[in-house]
Amino acid sequence: MTDASPMRVDGSTTGHGDSGGNATADTSSQGNQGLTTPCPPNVSTTAEATTRGRKRSWVWEHFTMVGGGDSKKARAACKYCGTDYAATSANGTKNLIAHILKQCKKYPNSIGKSQSTLAFEFTNDGGSGDLFAVPFSVEACRQALVEMVILDELPFRIVEGEGFKRFVRVVCPKWTTNKIPSRMAIARDCFNVFLREKKKLGRALRGQRICLTTDTWTSVQNLNYMCLTAHFIDDNWTLHKRIINFCVVDNFKGVTLGRAVESCLFQWKLKKILTLTVDNASSNSSLIEFLKDKTKEKKDTVLENEFLHVRCYAHILNLIVHEGLKELDESIAKIRNVVRYVRSSPQRWSKLQACAERETISSKSQPCLDVPTRWDFTYMMLDKAQKFQKAFERLEEVDKNFLPTLREGEEDEDGDDGNCGQSKKGKKVFGAPEREDWIKVRLFVKFLQLFYDAALRFSGSKAVTANQFVPELMLIRDTIEEECLNENESLKKMAMDMKSKFNKYWENLDNQNLLLYVAVVLDPRYKLRYVHFAFKGLYHDISKVDEKTEQVKDALVRMYEAYLKNDKGRDAQNNMSTQLSQGSSGSSSSGPLSVRRSLRMAQFMREIEEENSLEKKSEVERYLEEGLAKLDGYFDILNWWKANSCRFPVLSLVARHVLAIPVSTVASESAFSIEGRVLDPFRSSLSPRMVEGLLCAQDWLRSSSTPISLQKALEDVEEFEKLDSELGELTIADEENPNASLVKQQQQQQQQEIPTLTWPENSELDLDWIKNLISTFDWSSKNLPPSEFQSVLPVQVFDTLILAASKILHEEPNCLTIDPDKSSTVVVVGDIHGQMHDLIFLLKQAGFPSQNHFFVFNGNYVNHGAWGLETFLLLLAWKVFMPDRVFLLRGNHESKYCTSVYGFEKEVLTKYGEKGEHVYQKCLGCFEGLPLASIIAGCVFTAHGGLFRSIPLIQSKTSKGKKKSRKLSSNSEPESLSLGSLEELSRARRFVLDPPVEGLNLIPGDVLWSDPSMTLGLSLNKERNIGLLWGPDCTEDFLKKFNLKLIIRSHEGPDVREKRTGFGGMDEGFTIDHVVESGKLITVFSAPDYPQFQATEERYKNKGRTLFWNPLILIIQIFTALKQLLQDHR
């Protein structure tokens, strides 16, 4: 890369004379300042230079005047390449600008049209991913600008601002000012993004049954808007929230809103609606009745819209909390006074901090003011202020202006003298809080914490809330009941008022939507037992408890039967064959083989249907009779239903739709407010159509919008206050080296930010530790060079982890026996090759290992990728945590030879430096212990490469009079090859770093290196010079001999498969290689866009696959590389 030529960075001119002579940059005054890139760039460097009253062009900084003093023959020569141009006043600067921007090859900032720039990919969390080449594109810049305007809610005129143009000149000089679109062009582009994304969303919503929420807005122009949002769970069991309409309505009457909703549904062609969540406004009853009348007779309506109406429970929660706040108005006002006093100036704040130090208050939180319309801000203010009670009391003693200032402030505001009483205007005023006020507030804060947490849960849009509604409701009720017995009369009265409001909305089951109780039943941790338990707390009459419980069960049964009658419900019962045919479509082709496959699958499905018909129990009965799932904080209900949808095909459809029901109409940032939502002045000035386009497009472009967190906002305030203090310290730093303090501070901050993993004190791994390991590895891969990895995972922690894993692995047999029950799922994963980020994505998509969710990893964890060590260690951590649920098999790359040739050895030495050889040898030792194969449920054989030869015992010749001895035969001649047995596999010596290619211990090499063939029989694998090739007849013999139905292998990526004839490519991440009478042979590859070390344009665009297996079904699930997903979204 060519260094940029020196320019001033202090904003001064470069000393051009009036004649346009040489522009000599004065570099003597630059000192240690960095050099900036020359321009078209820095307009500020020439803004003051003028010629005859006109501003001098920036381009003169890059040319030198030549041709003597004759102004008629004056020429300008490029400082970089020497090319000269006529430079008289008649010629202008157009040619000079064109030369610098488009023609000069030696200009330091010149980038050819075909030249690419290296850049890092962005990830979901805002970090950086892989390094890849990006060619410059004006269209790409324009598209990114449009999305920035939409996502960050910027005004269109930002593109015409001088500051924005200066910014673009510096960060992207090739995107010249005349190519930046105007504000009207940006407005058109924004609306085109809306239209483009609307088409995509329309395709995604096609055929979905959705749940709706409505919200109302106003603008400064007094226009009324209605926002309609769709909530649904897709086929991959992922919850989605999408705004589908934001339109002007004449008023907020029920019929008016109903017509608007009906029009929107017609426009989007949405016919399948389950629920509509609305707030508690009386007009919404008319809205519900209007929609029921219009849709109850339609074919796709469920139970005539009996369960259409869902109340916004965040809104009801607000009403209950504000009922309680009324009782503490006086105490809250007093605390607000003292907080306002200390926050009004730095000097007062310093005095409070000094008082806090004297009282040894070590709380990092700082008192903050509230917003009267946001009770969560009030809760935060009280919570933080009560921790400083003693500091405020000491401040009252040491600061003589404390009480007088409060009185002056109240007199200014209310016209009173500050004493507690009536002001001249009749308004009651308060002074500083007394001890009784602090006692009330402290008790109230603990009480309010429950409502704060519940409001956050009710208003979440990225996680299922329907199944948590009833448990939260019962917790709130129990807490209110407990406070009704409080000895403090104020708190007791407050609780009684809140109980009255609670009973008004939630005591009578007939006023509630039963689907929210059905959602609890559909949570396998609760089922009907928790509903019965909850009703016992609400109703003391056991007969009434049984009656209400049966009412909920009846609602579930009626939903199930309605879905069963539906065409999609009947199809769901046959979804096993559908899923398999979809999974195999990527590699199958038409012809006899395809016909044979279909016939075999039809036979299989008939067998399954016959087995199911014998049970004579509905899915609801079977589901309720099963035991409860483990009750813990890490249970993923969507993952559970995803894994068990094959066992409950119709009931899982009910669950998919019921669990999508939102219990709140508002997002978490609005869940605490009693005010309506108002458009900002910029959006209010736009046409309604443009407002809808901007709001909808913003919602659609945000792949994972993060709700605003009050706690995070307050932490930001505290961080900025710390920064302000630090900047104050910098002003009195050592004048001889003003940067020293800043550099030291940055170094300390960097050291503090690097997370360091430690081994648990009790030496037992848990899920939190593994999640921390994942996030730490992910962070370090994006923020640290490889040489600093050992600061994240010290060698002592590495040693402990690999020792624990090695002990487990070395004790396992060569061929594992995995016996899941019928309710469990086994996920088989192919080659990963150091693609840690794709592995993390795979685990999140497939679901973490659990008691009923097994994983079998089929080898090749390292090499060809930058994070082979992290990948292997992450899997070892899972193995240590769940040794009987996570199984790691060996691949051919887990050997000394492959790791020394294909990058893993170098990776380890780079990451651990002097200790690298020690770490590498420990990894090799662990490789030796990895098992070779597994058998799942007695019918699925998995191994990295595949089948293996027999090494039989033969009689040896002996001399006369001596006993005959027996020895192993190497059986290496092609004519003598035969398939090995599972018993021989169990006897093989796997504890070798590099499986031998000759001799008596050939089985490990066969298992790791063999490949299938379309040629019948067994032969040596001459292409690899190790292992075997076996044909379909061998697959049939092996399956039949050991009563198996399926062989799952890996070993072959897209690079190998493209060289093989007779087999499908690995573009889809898997192939079905042999289909025989007894079953199938499948190859699965789980490293998408392989290999990672290749340049982007040379990498294969293959997908990754995982196989989900349980006793009833095999599902082949696709996943793409993380970067590919992001590109598709964009």
Automatic annotation (TrEMBL):
Q: What is its EC number?
A: 3.1.3.16
Does Transport count among this protein's keywords? no
Q: Which SUPFAM superfamilies match?
A: beta-beta-alpha zinc fingers, Hermes dimerisation domain, Metallo-dependent phosphatases, Ribonuclease H-like
Q: Write out the ranges of the annotated region (Disordered).
A: 1-53, 406-428, 570-594
* Keyword set includes Phosphoprotein: no
Catalytic activity line of the entry: O-phospho-L-threonyl-[protein] + H2O = L-threonyl-[protein] + phosphate
The record, for SMART domains, names:
PP2Ac (SM00156), ZnF_BED (SM00614)
Assembly description: Homodimer.
User: Which PANTHER family does this UniProt record tie to the protein?
Assistant: ZINC FINGER BED DOMAIN-CONTAINING PROTEIN 4, ZINC FINGER BED DOMAIN-CONTAINING PROTEIN RICESLEEPER 1-LIKE
**Protein name in UniProt:** Serine/threonine-protein phosphatase
